[in-house]
Amino acid sequence: MLGNLKPQAPDKILSLMAEFKADTRQGKIDLGVGVYKDPTGLTPVMRAVKKAEQKIWETQNTKSYTALAGEPEYRDAMSSMVLGALGGDRVASVGTVGGTGAIRQALELVRMANPDAVIHVSDPTWPNHVSILNFMGQAYEMYPYFDNETRGIAFEAMLDGIGKAKKGDVVLLHGCCHNPTGANPTAEQWDAIAESLEKTGATPLIDLAYQGFGDGLDEDAAATRMIAERLPEVLIAASCSKNFGIYRERTGILMTLTNDAKSRDLSQGAMAYLNRQNYSFPPDHGARIVSTILTDDALKADWKAELEEVRQTMLGLRTQLADELRTLSGSDKFDFIARHRGMFSRIGATPEQVARMKEDAGIYMVGDSRLNIAGLNRDTVPILARAIVEAGV
Ligand code: PMP
Question: Do 80 and 218 sit in the same domain of this protein?
Fold first, then answer.
């Protein structure tokens, strides 16, 4: 039976990682995989995470099952972190296996609520969105998003695209730090997006995987909060992988906001049911780290301070890279790198130019020319800038 399986195409980013590893050149630079790296190339365990783990180790006296929806302390703490004071009793939520699990459960929930729903996703989007939609056989359409000339958002086209969504459809939005492009709507553009959703009656599904990596913890949640305030029904899939640096602990949350207690309770029940069908109890360790940090003033302050250091490091690298490119190219056409936010920027290079940078300079980025800013440090920025100009981008 198992011999009938079809071979699966390997994940492009994981293949790139393997290729990088096999490259024996000194000075090679990995800008592929989407994890934060400090200037020494390490993806560190955050200070507050270490302390929270110690606290858990010292105080935890059982590893018995918890709640099917995940621990309430974690879900409440995440609701506050994402929604501020807004959350309250409009929110139903479940802990999930990472942000990926939250997206998957969100799509399953939509399918249960409306089998005819069409999911509208940005072109481009995080490839795993499309991969999961294809795997599920879920109907979807792509709305224009990126302008390859300006490396900003093709906003009029985007609005046209999401305007085609109907009531009962879902519009998947990146709450901040768009992956893979790094280009994000302005506050006015977010208002127009909310207006479009109000008009069409489509339900937003907000993927919030990088809160704290863009403009700040609250700033990165501002669009999500505005939409949650204005729209009667909102789904939010949040990940703790990046902002707590707990990638392998698989910590995420799916939240729904509704305007009536009946829909909230139905949603809560359906999400817990979905957890049961897919993996039963969600992972606890990462969720407990997060709630331990968020409910302890000292740990929370330390975590926020370190997250801010991470954010500032990435912003500094963006500014340095944009400055180097302005000098080397004699033009301001790369200034978008300083305007982009989050870990990624799509620099608009052709696949041939991406290949050339790999071959000539040992610089590895994803084929669509997405680079991970955090893969750089102050010494490698000038090397990348030179390679970009020499490749003729
Ligand atoms: N959404 C987006 C846009 C992402 O980039 C990621 C991580 N690469 C996720 C969701 C999910 O991350 P995880 O499952 O590791 O929490």
Answer: yes
